Amino acid sequence: MLGSAQRVAVVTGSSQGIGLAIAQSFVNNGWRVAFVSLGLEQIRSSFLTEVELHQVLLYEMDVTETDKIGPCLDDIIGQWGQVDVLVNNAGIRTVTSNSDMKIEEWNRVLSVNLGSTFFFSQAVAPIMKKRGWGRIINMSSFAGQFGPVNSSAAYAASKAGQLALTKVFARELAPYGITVNAISPASVRTPEMDTIAPADMEKMVATIPLGRVGEAEEVAAMVMYLAADSTGFVTGATLDINGGRLMR
């Protein structure tokens, strides 16, 4: 395997929150990173610097537009020659009740969260097979394990589906030196948390044995762990990062 300075990671949903923290962690560790997301314009001035520009490619795209996935990866290969790690992080969360759920919302959530995970993994697999090495990391959620507490059924179902896809791809790709794992965060500080009322935050923190919310950088550190050479014997696994809310 090549040195880390020459490795390439693709991170979907990387314009803010956990996705941005993951992408930034790769950059900080000397990786080349392709940001694939909507809303990338907002990070050009807040994150990118002249020093980092050679390490970064930006692809402003809706991950549900599956016809753009192949050209996106082809462009990355054309510029950098490889893709070593794919982080399927793109996702949307809704809180609509079952009785109010419309088919449009259901289809959109499943398409963004679950569909993009499948189609990006499907597209990157042949690239990784050729090199005999690769890491696919799927960002699932506590909701996919425990059920929807503060999220919609569509969100919970999509995140549970990611856990199943993790195992499916892990079994298929293991003979090629490619590992596929999932990370299941809960109660992690993101921009969305800024909208939560203080009283509701207190109630949430009270359910966490560690007595605090997680930080996006802690999730990013777990991604870096799974992306390393030293974790090549870990595949088909789901790593929890939830402060103890779910112990198994």
Describe the structure in your own words.
The chain is of the alpha/beta class and 248 residues long. The protein has a single domain (4-241), classed as Rossmann fold (3-Layer(aba) Sandwich), CATH 3.40.50. The chain contains seven helices and seven strands; from the N terminus they run βαββαβαβααβααβ. The protein has helices at 17-28, 69-80, 103-131, 143-146, 153-173, 198-206, 216-227; strands spanning 8-12, 32-37, 56-60, 85-88, 134-139, 178-185, 238-241. A seven-stranded parallel β-sheet has the order 3-2-1-4-5-6-7, sandwiched between helices. Helix 1 (17-28) links the parallel strand 1 (8-12) and strand 2. Helix 3 runs parallel beside helix 5 (153-173). The radius of gyration is 17 Å and the shape is globular. The chain starts with 7 loop residues before the first strand and ends in a 7-residue tail after the last strand. Mean pLDDT is 92; it is low at 1-5.
Beta-strand percent range: 15-25%
> Might you state the CATH topology name?
Rossmann fold
Helix count equals 7
Low-confidence runs of at least 5 consecutive residues: 1-5
- The rounded Rg comes to 17 Å
Shape: globular
- In the CATH hierarchy, what is the superfamily? NAD(P)-binding Rossmann-like Domain
Oligomer kind: single chain
Distance between the termini: 34 Å
Strand segment count: 7
Largest sheet: 7 strands, parallel
CATH architecture: 3-Layer(aba) Sandwich
Name the helicity range. 25-40%
Across the major sheet, the strand order is 3-2-1-4-5-6-7
Tally of individual domains: 1
Text of the CATH class: Alpha Beta
Mean pLDDT across every amino acid position: 92
> Based on helices, strands and strand pairing, what is the structural class?
alpha/beta
